[in-house]
Amino acid sequence: MFEQQHPNVIALRGFLAAACLAVLGGCGSAGSVVTSTKTSASVPATPAGLTATAGNATVALSWTASSGATGYNVKRGTTSGGPYTQLAAPTAASYTDSAVTNGTAYYYVVSALDATGESANSAGASATPKAPSSGPPAAPTNLMATAGNAQAGLTWSASSGATGYHVKRATTSGGPYTQVAAPTSASYTDTGLTNGTTYYYVVSALTSAGESANSAQASAAPVAPPPSIPATPTGLVAAPGNASVVLNWSASSGATSYHVKRATMSGGPYSQVAAPTSTSYTDTSLTNGTTYYYVVSALDSAGESAGSTQVSAVPAVPNPPPTSFGTWTNVTPTTIDLTDALSCGNFGTKSVQTDPSHPTDAYTMFHCQGVWKSSDYGQTWTGPINTGSNAAKLTDCAGVVTVVPTSTTAAPTLYAACIRGTGVGFWKSVNGGVDWTQETVAPAPAGNGQQFYAPVVDPYDTQHLLMVGHAVNLLVESTNGGVTWSAVNTDPGMTMNGGTGGIEFINTGNATTSRTTWLWLASQTGGLIGTWRTSNSGANWTRVDKNEHINGETQTYQPNTSGVIFMAGQYSALGDGVLKSTDFGQTWAHVGQAEPEGVVFGTSKALYAMYGWGPGAGVVVNPTLEVGATSGTGTWASPGTPPAMSQGPAQAVVLNDGTNNIILVANYNAGMWRYIEP
After folding, report:
1. Distance CA 497, CA 374 (A)
2. pLDDT score at 169
């Protein structure tokens, strides 16, 4: 049992114990006084070892941790010794100050904290942040080279700050290397390589400060992919020809050849007929009128593809000539004399012209009997219409007329040229052939020296004319509608010494080049002189063929401005008859029958050629009419002409009455004839 203490005794002991603690720092165990062993709480130790390391716009601080500290106060000033401003309160013994300016000195102290309080400040530390010094970038890392077909793909890790890279290649490990590219990104594909060859690569990085060292080397050996069966050919087309079929198709990638297979039934069975290495084949010796079916497969070392989509074609004779023909009618006025010599030497009619602005109208000149006009597509004729000024001279004229082809006036402008009679010379009418004015062609002598064939007119400029002298070596040009003339340069090889050349504008579809591009034909020298062409108004001439025109007028035919021109004649090395050019007269090929022809002309349905010249009344000259397809290719028919058409034409024109094409031909002493095309 414990002894029960009086309450006052207990209180006295408590007082003495407290007194001992307060006054003596603790009393021993003497007497009955109770002792205490507990010490008082204290703040953490001041941090030690503070360091400040400058960076680019940063200062990194670190210090030795204070025992028991639960955090720290980082303080900063801009003057050594302060005053300091608290900047941060980290719990770790480090801190990076990023709110600083390069070039400014900063001073730091750190204190430690716990629940009891805050220690004194540490010793100070300072640092001055600054931008890093400039220099070449680091060398690229992780370069990898991946082989492909005749190429190598390169990738690498970008170098910080690099603005570009130099890719360098060698065929020996370790170099020497040759720069092959300068990409701005961290990848590059090197192409055009040789499969089976090992290529070695390094890459360097560049900035404005310079170039880094080379990266570690990487290598790759390009290799071709294993062969595979090529794709099935596509785009197969079949074009029928005369006993033949032309096949074309799109190439199959990697194919080394093709199998062409044919059948006479849709869907086969097919028989191989060829193994071409190109993407075309012409199947010949076929039967016209039979349908043939084709497929094509592609081959390489791996095998053969499936057959293409089937196509078919029916061979046939190309461009057959017309099989039905119209009737020729002699429309010469009954009052015209085609047999007597008359006053000027009568060779009938050598010209017939249409007025495009008045499609019903046509004009001609009957030798020694004046200028005549038809207003009903050549069925009937009225004349002479030269009833005004110089009427007598135009009547006493052996010559030809030209109508300006683009006239838009009520009465067209006509030109005439006379080589015999009192009207010898060059004439012009601006009121449809009623009144006439003679213009002197200055390059030629007066009198009989003024003999010319009627001019040809620039298709784009009605004032621009070309004209050849009769039986002389003279070509003249006018740019003001025949008022004044100048001689045109010709090549010495064009000298005929007595013959009459023929001149034509070539319509190129362009006014500028048409103005300077002409075709000139010699007149029957046996092919010694031939056909000449200029593209610069006669400054230079080129002989393009041996063809020459038949004595009399020259008439070529241009169906459009695509480059196609037809000319008729004799003595070409390609053969007598009709020649065709597809390049505005630079080169020629023979079409039609191999017999001399004088004129060539065409309609929307067919192409015509006829032979004619002027031997005088009573002499028969077979017109040798031949008719072909509008293209001129293929076979031509010979439908013949009436016996009364005893001479062929010097000139022909085509009209259209809204239903039919109508042909008018001026056939010398056989007169004017009319043909309605069916």
Report:
1. 38
2. 98
Q: For residue 259, what are the contacts with CB-CB under 8 A and spacing of at least 6?
A: 272, 274, 275, 296, 297, 299, 304
**Cα–Cα distance between 576 and 51 in angstroms, integer?**
111
CA distances (Å), 478 to each of 27, 432, 453, in order? 148, 21, 14
Residue 493 is classified by DSSP as: G
Q: Are 119 and 66 in contact (CB under 8 A)?
A: yes
3-class state of residue 627 by DSSP: strand
Please provide the DSSP assignment of 54-73 as one string. E-SS-EEEEEEPPTT--EEE
pLDDT at 130: 85
Q: Distances in Å between the alpha carbon of 530 and those of 494, 504, 595, 609?
A: 8, 14, 17, 19
Kindly list the strands in the beta sheet with 280-283, ordered across the sheet, starting from the edge strand earlier in the chain: 234-241, 244-250, 280-283
Q: CB within 8 A of 31, min separation 6: which ones?
A: none
Rounded CA-CA distance 101/128 in Å is 8
pTM of the model: 0.59
Q: What is the pLDDT of residue 2?
A: 35
Q: Residue 91's pLDDT is what?
A: 94
Is CATH 2.60.40.10 what the domain over 234-313 is classified as, yes or no? Answer: yes
Give per-residue pLDDT as tens, 199-226.
999 999 999 889 999 999 999 999 988 8
Cβ distance 521 to 543 under 8 Å? no
Q: What's residue 322's pLDDT?
A: 87
CATH 2.130.10.10 intervals, the chain: 328-676
The string of DSSP codes covering 528-575 is SS-EEEESSTTSS-EEEES-BBPSS--B-B-SSSSS-EEEEEB--TT-
User: Which of 324, 254, 272, 263 has its CA nearest to residue 292?
Assistant: 263
**Rounded distance between C-alpha atoms, residue 108 and residue 111, angstroms:** 10
Q: How far lies 246's CA from each of 278, 285, 314, in Å?
A: 13, 12, 11
The confidence score (pLDDT) of residue 1 equals 36
Architecture per CATH, 328-676: 7 Propeller (2.130)
586 CB neighbour count, 10 Å cutoff:
14
Q: Which residues contact 104 (CB under 8 A, 6 or more apart)?
A: 78, 128, 129
Q: Return d(Cα 523, Cα 547) in angstroms, integer.
A: 9
pLDDT of residue 3: 36
Strands lying side by side in the sheet with 94-97: 48-54, 59-64, 94-97
Sheet bearing 456-458, strands edge to edge: 456-458, 461-468, 475-478, 486-487
CA-to-CA distance for 183 and 143, rounded, in angstroms? 14
For the structural domain made of 141-220, what CATH number should be given?
Answer: 2.60.40.10
The 3-state secondary structure of 148-159 reads CCCEEEEEEECC
Degrees to nearest 5, angle at CA 370 with 338 and 383: 90
**Mean pLDDT split into 10-residue runs, the chain, 678 residues:** 37 36 37 36 91 93 94 96 94 94 95 94 93 81 96 95 95 96 96 97 93 95 90 96 95 96 96 97 95 97 95 88 93 98 97 93 98 98 98 97 80 96 97 97 94 96 96 96 97 93 97 98 96 98 97 92 97 97 97 96 97 95 96 93 97 97 98 97
Alpha carbon distance 355, 375 (integer Å): 10
Residues spanned by CATH 2.60.40.10 within the chain?
A: 48-127, 141-220, 234-313
**Given this structure, which CATH class describes domain 48-127?**
mainly beta
- The DSSP element (H or E) to which 18 belongs, if any, is helix 7-19
